Amino acid sequence: MGRPADDQLDRLRRTGRWLPYRLALMGLVAAGLLVLGVVDGSVVPSAAFAVGTLGFCWWVLRMRRRSMRRLRTARSAAGSPGEHG
Questions:
Q1: CA distance 26 to 30
Q2: pLDDT in tens, 11-66
Q3: DSSP 8-class letter at 81
Q4: Rounded to whole angstroms, how far apart are CA atoms 14 and 6?
């Protein structure tokens, strides 16, 4: 069980390099749609989208942290602290 946990943890770390850029892009899209909504006069749907986007970003970060914590626990329970065997 240690090796699959190590592999998955490595995969999460590799994809985590791009996470700030992806979240920033989602934030820019939400801000852009909010600005367009204010200019167009439809603020409520744009604000709802911005809040939904922020909620989704929070959820992504929470699930990533949770997965990493569980994988570290599984790795330590298997008795392989970071070694590939």
A1: 6
A2: 888 888 899 999 999 999 999 999 999 999 889 999 999 999 999 999 999 999 99
A3: S
A4: 12
